[in-house]
Amino acid sequence: MFKKFMAAPYAVFMTLFVLLPLALVLVFAFIDASDGSFDMLANFKELAKEDALGKVVKNSLVAGLSTSVICLLLGYPIAYYLNKPEFNKKGVMIGLFLAPMWVNFLLRMMATKAVFNVIGVKMGMGTVIFGLSYEFLPFMIMPLYTTIQKIDKCYIEGASDLGATPSRAFWKVTVPLSMPGILSGLTMVMIPSITTFAVTEIMSNGKMMLLGDFIYSLKADSLNMAAAISFVLLIFMAISMVISNKYNKDGDGASKGGGLW
Amino acid sequence: MNNDTKTTPEQNGGDYIIQLKGLTKQYGTKTVVKDINLDIKRGDFVTFLGPSGCGKTTTLRMIAGFEIPTEGKVLFDGKDIAKLPPHKRPVNTVFQKYALFPHLNVFNNIAFGLKLKKIPVVYTKPNGEAAEKQIKLRDFLVNPDTGSPDFSIAAKDYFSYKEQGYVKLCKIKKTVNKMTKKGRVKKLVNGYRYYIDEKVRRALKIVGLSDYETRDVNSLSGGQQQRVAIARAIVNEPKVLLLDEPLGALDLKMRQEMQIELKEMHKTLGITFIYVTHDQEEALTMSDVVVVMKDGVICQEGTPIDIYNEPTTAYVADFIGESNILDGTMIDDYKVNIVGVEFECVDAGFGQNKPVDIVIRPEDIEVTVKEKGQLAGIIKSSTFRGVHYEMVCECNGYEFTIHSTIESPVGKEVGLRVSPENIQIMNKEHVDNTVKAKFTSNSTMEIFGGVYDFNPEKLFENCIYDSENDILKINGEEYTLKGEEATVNFAFTDIDMTDDEYAAPLAGNVESMIYKGKNYLVDIKTDDNNHVYADTEYLWDKGDRVGIKIDTDKFGLVECAMLARKEDGNV
Predict the structure, then answer these.
(1) Strand partners, B355
(2) Cα A103 vs. chain centroid, distance in angstroms?
(3) What is the pLDDT averaged over residues B139-152?
(4) pLDDT grade for A247, boundaries at 50, 70 and 90
(5) What is the Cα–Cα distance from B215 to B110, expressed in whole angstroms?
């Protein structure tokens, strides 16, 4: 019985700061700000009228997708080699790769911006994507690292025993088995990168907006609209969760290689 | 390839498909496999048998290519493949943990190897030179008339067949009965897919899993997964199939069934099987040749019958089947003393009054009335074991295990008889402990890292030791022992084992035990991988941490460089 009480503080916290706000988001999203009445579509219609939004969504998708792809392309080889004992003696290397997370991200972004200014790079979409990739790379490496770590070496041995060259074995066995890690890495990079706001602000000199910046710019007077955008994002997140969970459910997580988060 | 050097594989390796020459594997300073030499005959079912950690799996992995030997050769058809990566070796493995790919279904698991298959073909270059290249199975040329791949053309001029109207395997169309979720459906596929489909179906049929193609491997039972693993290996038609404890995870009934099936498969396929197990019954049931291993070396190799009936060491006898292992003395040829009674035997050439190990199988002891027996004893216990009774009979203080279909009641005085040919006599592996010792002072010596006190007057002849002034005289001359080395020996019985490792100068782990009717002969492995053998009446468990006390007064001096040096000097 005692064990149950241990969870009580967390349950209270969850209710107050997670469930309640979520419920509020839902409620606000469906309340018409002008007359306070319940209207399923009022806020979304309003959103559609917003001229800037189209561009923001486009920017968000471009930045989010390219950041995820860049992080995957950079993160996969890193996570793969970190799992080789000769590259990652006593976990030192993984520590080094995750070390940037210890520095405040605003500081990192400012410093990066300063460097770009010195070498004369034009701030814009390119620098935003660079900043986002820099910021979220560790979120890609971590799930991939654990997933690849859990892939039993016997599968690779099995493949090479059946005549697969090391590169064949990698593409035919390691990559498919690390799919859950790839998916969870992609979600962990994609969603935060399109909803972040400070990075875009700094890395584009305030010229560019992603969904996060857009919500931020709406301020308190249009809380309902902000809630509506959040609601759309929530749906995106739910879809990505469903996809990665589906991968984890086929067979047990251990043999499939790593659970999500 | 040059014609002069071209020989058939049969000529290269002779009768042997795989030969291990001086095979050694070390991890750091630990030697797991020590200088193994073994010839494996074409088509044989060979089993490596031994307890865990004996090096049997490492040996198999060196044949498969997952481990590169530190030293030695792995000859395949006479060609050294020790350094080849696994994917270039003509062997396939069935893994202990199956290693079926969880992201592929049964069909794709089995087809995995086939899809990667490449065939070496010869062709003529435009300038007329002969050349060789690897082509994928899908690009292999097929006779349009028969529609099936003819692998004999690989050895002829490959490209000239193209001009004769031969087409690529993937270019022809064929119908197959493809297994789908709804059952078997006729489907038009290309020749390459047809070929793979046929092979996979045939392999599944061999392992008795027809119609399982579309099943998810995770939904199969352990036994079925094992069958898929076997199918996945044999579909590639390897010359040698390696099996690493493949039945270890199955329950008894399933295991016995699979043993028979594996043996059948071996017969039908006609290829060489190399099997690794720690289960002696499994080894005896299936193998043509059993190789018993211990501590990285081969103890004995032979047919199951030879290994069972004529074990060469007490260790092998103890490992294979139940047996009575006893100390004996070879009085003379054909005469052996066991537990104080003289027996006739069929062995000769051991010498006179030589200590030997005796093995008598429980079913070879005949129980008669007290007067007719060679040994008299009392039945201590009797257990019904299905077909026979297992009885323990005590004679002259030693216990004998007897298997008989006729029960003798507990407490009955009986006579035991053993016919001469059923007494197996073996040289002892060790008659005593002979160790290198280093003196650390005039009265202490270091053995395997443990420092023992000893009395020099008992170790050396004509020795006077003044312990107060620390003066040591041998034959009237003064010596300082510190830093000198000697070889000493002591009997198994001079060791006292204690479960408090700090109460003794040296500690080790119990590696193995052999029951000798009254006492146990315990093999203790010290932390530096040295072995000390002790005779004890107490039962220890494998892996127990024990302190080794030695009665140093009983030490015998085998050799001492210091004294030898002195003698040389005098001469």
Answers:
(1) B329
(2) 19
(3) 76
(4) low
(5) 12
Residues belonging to chain B: 571
DSSP annotation string for B457-476: HHHSTTEEEETTTTEEEETT
Q: What is the pLDDT of residue B569?
A: 59
Percent of chain A residues topping a pLDDT of 90: 30
Q: Which helix (H) or strand (E) holds A123?
A: none
Please, which residues bridge with residue B124 across strands? B130
Query: Can you tell me the distance from the alpha carbon of A172 to that of B410, in angstroms, rounded to the nearest whole number?
Result: 66
pLDDT in tens, B42-65: 999 999 999 888 999 999 999 999
The amino acid occupying position B2 is N
Contacts of B116 in chain A (CB under 8 A): 162-164, 168
Residue A128 burial (C-beta neighbours within 10 Å; 0-12, 13-18, 19+): buried
The highest-level CATH class for domain B433-570 is mainly beta
Question: Do the bridges between strand B495-498 and strand B545-550 make them parallel or antiparallel, or are there none, so unpaired?
Answer: antiparallel
Identify the CATH homologous superfamily for domain A51-256: MetI-like (1.10.3720.10)
Average pLDDT, chain B: 87
Q: Which CATH code, of 3.40.50.300, 3.10.180.10, 3.40.50.880, 3.40.50.10610, is assigned to B9-90+240-301?
A: 3.40.50.300
Contact list in B for residue A250 (CB cut-off 8 A) is 216, 218
Could you tell me which residues are beta bridge partners of residue B549?
A: B496
Angle B303-B309-B310 (CA atoms, 0-180°, nearest 5)? 85
Residues of chain B with CATH 2.40.50.140: 322-427, 433-570
Burial class of residue A36, CB neighbours in 10 A (0-12, 13-18, 19+): exposed
**Chains A, B: CB pairs < 8 Å:** 73
The residues of chain B that CATH labels 3.40.50.300 are 9-90+240-301
User: Domains of chain A: which residue ranges?
Assistant: 51-256
A173 touches chain B (CB under 8 A): yes
Interstrand relation of B45-49 and B272-277 (parallel, antiparallel or unpaired)? parallel
- Residues of B with Cβ-Cβ distance to A157 under 8 angstroms: 66, 86, 93, 95, 99
- Taking only the tens place, the pLDDT of each residue in B320-351 is 888 899 999 999 889 999 988 999 989 888 88
Task: Render the burial of B167-189: b for 16+ CB within 10 Å, e for the rest.
Answer: ebbbebebebebbeeeeeeeeeb
Diameter of chain A measured on Cα atoms: 71
Asked if A163 has any chain B CB less than 8 Å from its own CB, the reply is: yes
At A248 the pLDDT is 62
CA distances from B272 to A238, B62, B413, B528 (A): 55, 16, 52, 38
Residues in chain B closer than 8 A to A158 (CB atoms): 93, 95, 99-101
Give CA A163 to chain center in angstroms.
Answer: 38
Kindly give the interhelix angle for A51-82 and A42-49, rounded to the nearest 10 degrees.
90
Please give the Cα distance from B147 to B168 (Å, whole number).
10
**Are B86 and A250 an interchain contact pair (Cβ–Cβ within 8 Å)?**
no
Nearest CA-CA partner of B320 in B307, B303, B331, B335: B307
Is the pTM for the entire model greater than 0.95? no
Query: What integer pLDDT is reported at residue B571 of this predicted model?
Result: 44
Taking CB atoms and an 8 Å limit, are A158 and B101 in contact across chains? yes
The answer, yes or no, to whether residue A261 has pLDDT greater than 50, is no
> How far, in Å, CA of B433 to CA of B501, rounded?
20
> In whole angstroms, what is the distance from residue B289 CA to residue B301 CA?
7
CB B49 within 8 A of CB B278: yes
Q: What CATH number does domain B322-427 carry, 2.40.50.140, 2.60.40.1120, 3.30.110.40, 1.10.1040.10? A: 2.40.50.140
> End-to-end alpha-carbon separation of chain A, Å?
29
Q: Which residues contact B116 (CB under 8 A, 6 or more apart)?
A: A162, A163, A164, A168, B87
Radius of gyration of chain A (CA): 22
